[in-house]
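Whiteboard transcription, Tuesday session. T.W. wrote the structure tokens on the left side:
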């Protein structure tokens, strides 16, 4: 089903607390993931081979010129350009697609041709796609059977050609295109072949991560009969040439007889230099050419990673969706350090991680701080520790301090805020050991040094500090900036206090209340505010900004409705600011039941509408859980069950918006288990509605969390009671430290709500580091 159709379907559903009827099936184990979920619609995922958090993502590319193909692939496309070694999963901006390999027959074609007319280039129609964790295969119309697998830093290809001549094209000019790009997109590239047949090369790319470099070393299992190089303008180099330099380069391996034994290609990559790529290839490929061995090892790695959560109950589709979400939640951040520990640091230098350490790329922190990183702290604490160490190290190296959206050694500064502080504060609160104090000087500069350089993500910091908000008549996306800067202040205050900077921590804590200055309590909405203190009027919460210019927005990928509930860390302050429990509950009801109209200039990211709630984008993804803070968790339960069953399908268009490096998937994993981290720094989870009858969660240290919901089915979304380790549990939340020790969490489910569960003030979740206020409901 297309994304537009699904959006229309969801928007037309007027019963905000209803849920669809689905069949119930009992099973003994978790299904395998469907790697094509998210490859259609606007999920922007890819189906190819990679390892958990691996450096190489070897996957087919079908197009490079549409927003729908930010990952390089879309399930609806009818032809494949070739197979490249790096991809982004679920992002709203495209990049990567490095070192395209094209197995071909017939006349050499050096351009891909168009999607509408693939026969004009080297594109191939295809059939018989198969994708599983760590492996991908496809039959191309030219008669070639292509198979892909990986190690962490190398991609392995196996091509079975029909009898007769054939060739393999290496297109180093292949990349994502966008009409906003400034040429040249590649300003420095080189290819060379060694006497032993190893092809090496590299390029500098100015797509999204401006000026990033990528290098490779590639070997073939069969020596070609000749090699041809092509320079800029596809000019063929003289016969016998062994190297070429320029901007848009290509090489072709020619085989007079390609049939018989398959041709294997193995390729190591590096963000540092050719020597790093060679070292990665040597270390991870060795001297063997056993494709099946690499495939088996990749599958074993994934089986271990996916065994972190096993479930029983639900439908067959729901079990597949859960396995797929768990898979997508372990793709990024991606490994970026070579086997010798070197990596391209954010200060433009080459750095080296300590022994046993790792550097990472693809930090989609505006998205992933919300659920992806909290999921890893629960199910993969060793990986979380590795990521936190790298966050600290790279925060000290980056000229901007706390990470924003780094990609392959370049800080793109995409989105707003400096949310790299959030996983640090969260991990610190959850007891993951690290040198958090080492990151504090960089965080302090970003927080208080207004002479420090700004990028788009941190515009208006000085005004935010001086006025208490970012004024809408001076800085774009001012309402969202104010609230997100306040959340980063909340997270940073924890790091400051642990570092012994008490006065700075106090200042940050006070400043974390700045969200109040852009939420107008008199009307109950987040609202643009100007430098003179006045509010935008007449106010329309559906619109994206107060100015008529389509590009000017006062909110980040959201409108006034969605941004009203952006506050994650001071929920009781927000409730009081908006008139108390009754008023806030009514406002939540209105969010989920308002007409789902959007202005003409709304970005496609605002998708998955239920009323004015947008599940396909991050700003209000915690909103359904806020009912628990006003003593109405039964409404959370109904809405969460609805979102789990309507927003996620076992289908290529099965993710309602960009998967955003696993954030959308992590939301589903948490919600399907029955709880969610509204504020990751609080280190607490708010109960929702578990989707399965039983789940076993590996939480590290050999401990297991068992989640039970006997008899749970589509008609029983409500939690009427909870038991923890056999004892009654009246709270509508539970602390991370409880779940991380392992134990038995038992939900009693029903088709009718129990309004008394979680109603008492003492049973509501903590916020702003404190239990709920003692006063009764307003």
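and on the right, the sequence the group agreed on:
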């Amino acid at each position: 089903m297309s994304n537009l159709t699904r959006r229309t379907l969801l928007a037309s559903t007027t019963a905000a607390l209803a849920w669809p009827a689905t069949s119930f099936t009992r099973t003994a184990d978790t299904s395998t993931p469907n790697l094509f979920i998210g490859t259609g619609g606007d999920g922007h995922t890819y189906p190819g081979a990679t390892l958990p958090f691996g450096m190489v993502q070897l996957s087919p590319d079908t197009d490079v010129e549409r927003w729908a193909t930010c990952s390089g692939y879309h399930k609806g496309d009818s032809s494949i350009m070739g197979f490249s070694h790096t991809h982004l999963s679920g992002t709203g901006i495209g990049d990567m697609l490095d070192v395209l390999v094209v197995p071909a027959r017939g006349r050499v074609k050096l351009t891909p041709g168009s999607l509408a007319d693939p026969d004009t280039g080297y594109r191939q129609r295809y059939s018989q796609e198969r994708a599983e964790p760590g492996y991908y295969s496809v039959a191309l119309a030219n008669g070639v059977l292509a198979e892909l697998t990986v190690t962490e830093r190398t991609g392995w290809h196996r091509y079975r050609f029909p009898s007769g001549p054939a060739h393999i094209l290496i297109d180093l000019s292949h990349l994502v295109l966008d009409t906003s790009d400034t040429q040249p997109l590649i300003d420095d590239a080189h290819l060379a072949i060694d006497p032993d047949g190893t092809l090496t090369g590299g390029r500098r790319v100015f797509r999204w991560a401006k000026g990033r470099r990528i290098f490779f070393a590639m070997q073939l299992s069969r020596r070609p009969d000749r090699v041809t190089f092509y320079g800029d303008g596809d000019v063929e180099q003289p016969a016998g040439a062994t190297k070429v330099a320029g901007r848009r380069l290509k090489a072709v391996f020619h085989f007079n007889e390609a049939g018989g034994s398959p041709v294997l290609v193995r390729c190591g990559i590096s963000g540092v230099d050719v020597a790093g790529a060679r070292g990665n290839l040597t270390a991870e490929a060795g001297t063997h050419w056993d494709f099946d061995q690499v495939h088996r090892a990749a599958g074993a790695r994934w089986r271990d990673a996916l065994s972190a959560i096993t479930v029983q109950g639900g439908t067959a589709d729901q079990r597949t969706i859960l396995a797929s979400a768990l898979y997508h939640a372990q793709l990024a951040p991606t490994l970026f350090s070579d086997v010798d520990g070197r990596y391209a640091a954010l200060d433009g230098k080459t750095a080296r991680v300590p022994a046993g350490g790792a550097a990472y790329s693809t930090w989609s922190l505006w998205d992933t701080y919300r659920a992806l990183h909290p999921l890893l702290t629960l199910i993969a604490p060793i990986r979380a520790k590795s990521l936190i160490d790298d966050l600290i190290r790279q925060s000290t190296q980056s000229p901007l301090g706390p990470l924003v959206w780094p990609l392959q050694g370049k800080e793109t500064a995409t989105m707003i805020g400096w949310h790299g502080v959030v996983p640090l504060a969260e991990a610190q609160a959850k007891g993951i050991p690290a040198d958090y104090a080492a990151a504090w000087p960089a965080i302090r500069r970003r927080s208080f040094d207004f002479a420090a350089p700004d990028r788009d993500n941190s515009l208006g910091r000085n005004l935010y500090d001086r006025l208490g908000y970012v004024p809408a008549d001076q800085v774009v996306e001012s309402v969202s900036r104010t609230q997100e800067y306040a959340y980063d202040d909340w997270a940073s205050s924890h790091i400051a206090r642990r570092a012994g900077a008490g006065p700075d921590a106090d200042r940050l804590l006070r400043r974390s209340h700045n969200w109040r200055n852009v939420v107008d309590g008199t009307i109950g909405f987040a609202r643009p505010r100007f430098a003179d203190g006045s509010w935008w009027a007449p106010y329309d919460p559906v619109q994206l900004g107060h100015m008529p210019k389509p590009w000017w927005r006062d909110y980040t990928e959201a409108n006034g409705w969605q941004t009203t509930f952006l506050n994650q860390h001071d929920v009781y302050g927000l409730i009081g600011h908006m008139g108390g429990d009754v008023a806030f509950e009514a406002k939540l009801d209105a969010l989920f039941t308002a007409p789902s109209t959007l202005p003409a200039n709304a970005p496609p990211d605002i998708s998955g509408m239920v009323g004015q709630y947008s599940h396909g984008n991050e700003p209000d993804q915690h909103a359904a859980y806020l009912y628990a803070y006003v003593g109405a968790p039964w409404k959370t339960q109904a809405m969460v069950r609805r979102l789990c069953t309507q927003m996620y399908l076992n289908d290529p268009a099965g993710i309602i918006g960009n998967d955003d490096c696993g954030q959308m998937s992590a939301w589903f994993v948490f919600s399907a288990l029955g709880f969610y981290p509204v504020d990751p720094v609080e280190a607490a989870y708010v109960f929702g509605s578990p989707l399965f009858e039983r789940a076993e969660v590996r939480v590290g240290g050999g401990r297991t969390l068992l989640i039970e919901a006997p008899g749970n089915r589509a008609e029983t979304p409500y939690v009427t009671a909870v038991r923890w380790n056999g004892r009654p549990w009246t709270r509508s939340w539970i602390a991370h430290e409880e779940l991380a020790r392992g134990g038995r969490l038992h939900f009693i489910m029903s088709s009718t709500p129990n309004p008394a569960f979680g109603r008492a003030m003492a049973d509501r979740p903590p916020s702003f580091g404190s239990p709920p206020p003692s006063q009764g409901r307003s």
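Someone added at the bottom: Residues 478-498 form the longest helix (21 residues).
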